[in-house]
Amino acid sequence: MNTHPIDRIAALPAYVPGKPAKVKLASNENPFPPLPSVIEAITVAAGEINRYPDTASLELREQVARKYDVPPEQVAIGAGSLTIGEQILQAFTHEGDEIVYGWRSFEAYPLVSAVVGVRAIQVPLREHMYDLDAMLAAITDRTRVIIVCNPNNPTGTAVQRDRLVAFLDAVPSEVLVIIDEAYGEYIDDPQIASGVDLIKGRQNACLLKTFSKAYGLAALRIGYVVSENLDIAASVGKTAMPFSVSTIAQAAAIASLHAEGELRDRVAQTTSERVRLTTELRALGWTVPDSQANFVWIDSGTDTPELVRRLGAVGISGRAFGEEGIRVTVGTPDENDLFLSAVRG
279 near 273, Cβ under 8 Å? Predict the structure, then answer.
């Protein structure tokens, strides 16, 4: 008799990464290479790879804690924010429990839910945005975790501070809220507060962050969680595979935190191009919601396959979602010009 994976794993669809292309606008990557100071730190760290990394990432934890003015005990480092999210689900749910999140949202949420063995309750978006009232209504006695992707991937929309505060106030204290802020550095709407401010004084909330997007360290897989509930950081430490965050990734992240001024300059370039793309796409008749991320969502519906064909004809890959729409990363000005030219046909 052959051995087989358990049913819920066997039934999982494989995660589909963005397709390689001459101009890849499919994966929400930073179009700029790492900063020179970060490359220098990586080069130095590469000379130490004969040694295991600091599995507790102590120096990086201290740097992140200093950034947010919190004790290091409130911070845990992991091999990307998605991995940390999975670890939190492992620690705070039992098989058969429920987690609630908006949909459509990050494609990995259903996969992680299935791997952990929890039931995913997907609450439809409202006008491309998380419907917080409907999510509150979806809470049952089996709900253990709620995920709020803010800004949301793939629509780019973000919930304003007042609405999110009211939502957090209404969530039962025994339900953990994960604010996934992978694209938080790109928020420029003053009415949208950082998750760090939102989780203060809350034992049932945590903030997920990544170095993959604005910091441009996607290939190194490194992120962190912050929470006043010390059990969250402690649980992430306990469930992590030893040495899963490399010395190179830790050194690059520390150097990135020391280059916040340069980071802001690069983010400003991306948000400026985001405005240009949004304005021009709307002028062409496409429905594009306001984005607070490093990508735009085109609500192209049944026209999505034709739009994908036009982009592919000139070597551009975006991320299509059936006949719902297409998510396009904000690239360099030249890449964005080529994209707009292809859309015009």
Answer: no
Instruction: Give me the residues of the chain with pLDDT under 50, please.
Output: none
CATH superfamily of 7-33+260-344: Aspartate Aminotransferase, domain 1 (3.90.1150.10)
pLDDT, residue 258, reads 97
CB 11 within 8 A of CB 325: no
Question: pTM surpassing 0.85?
Answer: yes
**DSSP, res 123:** E
Q: Where are the domains of the chain?
A: 7-33+260-344, 36-257
**Count of Cβ atoms closer than 10 Å to residue 107 Cβ:** 14
* Angle of CA points 333, 185, 158, to nearest 5°: 95
Q: Which 8-state DSSP code applies to residue 278?
A: H
Look up the CATH number of domain 36-257.
3.40.640.10
Residue 291 backbone phi and psi in degrees, to 5 = -105, 145
Query: Per 3-state DSSP, what percentage of the chain is helix, strand, and coil (rounded to 5)?
Result: 45, 15, 40
First-to-last alpha carbon distance for the chain, in angstroms, is 56
Write down the pLDDT at residue 194. 77
Distances (CA, A) of 328 to 184, 222, 294, 334: 17, 23, 9, 14
Alpha-carbon distance of 14 to 8, in angstroms, equals 13
